[in-house]
C-alpha cells in the first residue's frame, strides 16, 4: 500500500479531491473505494441504455518517498450481453467453473488510456502520471489530456450499440503496438467471438454475427490443442450456443 495515498483513511485529501473533481466533470459517478486495496479507486458512467464504463485509477508508490505514479485503466460492460448469456445459458456450460457470477453486466472491452498515450508519444518515458502534492495542477492537466485524447474518443464510439459492435468487429486490425519488441494487444477483448457476436445480435446484424462465429469455428475452433483447454471448451460451447440461437433467427 502506498504510504502517501490511503483512501480508506482519507489521507492525502488534495489528490483525492482532485481526482474526484476531474472524473465528475466528465459525468462519472458512483465513486467506489476498494477496501481490500485502498490505493484503487473507480468511477462509473453510463454510455447507453445497455453499455457502461468504469474508470480505474491505481496509485503506485515510487522510489522517492514523496512521489507516486497514477495509472488509469477502463473497462466497458454490456448489460444486454449479460441478459442474453443468462437466457441462453452461456454462463453455465457444465464445465468445472463458470466464467463469472450472475451479474448485471459483463466486460466486453478493456484498455489503458495512459498506456495508449505512452505508445503514441515516444517522448514519454513512463506510461504513468507521476508527481506529488506540489504538482497537483500538472497531474490534473496530464489526467485531463489522457482522458480527452485517449479515453473519450473510444467512449464516444461505445455510445451506441452499432458503434460498439463495429469497433469489436474491426478490433483485430487495432492490435498494434509501437513500443514493444513483440506484438501486444492494445485492447483486451474478453472472449472476442462471443461478445462481438452478441453486440451484433443486439444491433440486429444476425448474418454478420453468424459470420463472426463461423469464421472462429473454422480457425481457432478447429485447433484441437486449444479446444483441449478449459478456456477453449468454454468459448467453443458459447459459440455453438450462439450459432443455434442465430439459426433460429435466420431460418
Describe this structure in words.
- The chain has helices at about 15-25, 80-90, 115-120, 135-150, 150-155, 160-170, 190-200, 205-220, 225, 230-250; strands spanning about 30-35, 40-45, 50-60, 70-80, 105-110, 130.
- It contains 10 helices and 6 strands.
- It starts with 12 loop residues before the first helix and ends with a helix.
- A hairpin with a 4-residue loop joins strand 2 (about 40-45) and strand 3.
- It has a domain at about 5-80 and about 105-205.
- It is an alpha+beta fold and about 250 residues long.
In short:
This protein has helices spanning 13-25, 79-88, 113-120, 136-150, 152-157, 161-169, 192-202, 206-218, 224-227, 230-250; strands spanning 29-33, 40-46, 51-61, 68-78, 106-111, 129-131.
Q: Structural class, please?
A: alpha+beta
Q: Please provide the ordered H/E string of secondary-structure elements.
A: HEEEEHEHEHHHHHHH
**Extended strand count:** 6
Q: What's the overall geometry?
A: elongated
The first-to-last residue Cα distance is 57 Å
**Main sheet: strands, sense, barrel:** 6 strands, antiparallel
β content, as a range?
15-25%
In DSSP terms (H or I, runs of 4 or more residues), the helix count works out at 10
Average residue pLDDT: 84
Poorly predicted parts: 1-5, 93-98
**Rg from alpha-carbon coordinates:** 20 Å
Helix fraction by DSSP (H/I, runs of at least 4): 40-55%
Amino acid at each position: 500500500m502506498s504510504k502517501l495515498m490511503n483512501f480508506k483513511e482519507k489521507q492525502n485529501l488534495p489528490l483525492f479531491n482532485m481526482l474526484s473533481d476531474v472524473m465528475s466533470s466528465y459525468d462519472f459517478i458512483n465513486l467506489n473505494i476498494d477496501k481490500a486495496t485502498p490505493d484503487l479507486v473507480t468511477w462509473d458512467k453510463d454510455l447507453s441504455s445497455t453499455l457502461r464504463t468504469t474508470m480505474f485509477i491505481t496509485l503506485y508508490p515510487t522510489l522517492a518517498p514523496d512521489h507516486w505514479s497514477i495509472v488509469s485503466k477502463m473497462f466497458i460492460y454490456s448489460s444486454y450481453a449479460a441478459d442474453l448469456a443468462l437466457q441462453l445459458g452461456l454462463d453455465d456450460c457444465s464445465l468445472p467453473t463458470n466464467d463469472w457470477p450472475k451479474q448485471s453486466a459483463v466486460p466486453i472491452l478493456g484498455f489503458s488510456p495512459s498506456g495508449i498515450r505512452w505508445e503514441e508519444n515516444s517522448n514519454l518515458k513512463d506510461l504513468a502520471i507521476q508527481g506529488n502534492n506540489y504538482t497537483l495542477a500538472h497531474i490534473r492537466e496530464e489526467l485531463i489530456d489522457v482522458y480527452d485524447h485517449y479515453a473519450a474518443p473510444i467512449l464516444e464510439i461505445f455510445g451506441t450499440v452499432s458503434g460498439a459492435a463495429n469497433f469489436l468487429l474491426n478490433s483485430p486490425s487495432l492490435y498494434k503496438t509501437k513500443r514493444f519488441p513483440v506484438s501486444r494487444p492494445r485492447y483486451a477483448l474478453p472472449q472476442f467471438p462471443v461478445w462481438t457476436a452478441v453486440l451484433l445480435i443486439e444491433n440486429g446484424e444476425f448474418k454478420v454475427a453468424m459470420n463472426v462465429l463461423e469464421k472462429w469455428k473454422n480457425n481457432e475452433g478447429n485447433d484441437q490443442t486449444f479446444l483441449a483447454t478449459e478456456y477453449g471448451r468454454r468459448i467453443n460451447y458459447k459459440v455453438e450456443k450462439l450459432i443455434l440461437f442465430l439459426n433460429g433467427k435466420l431460418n
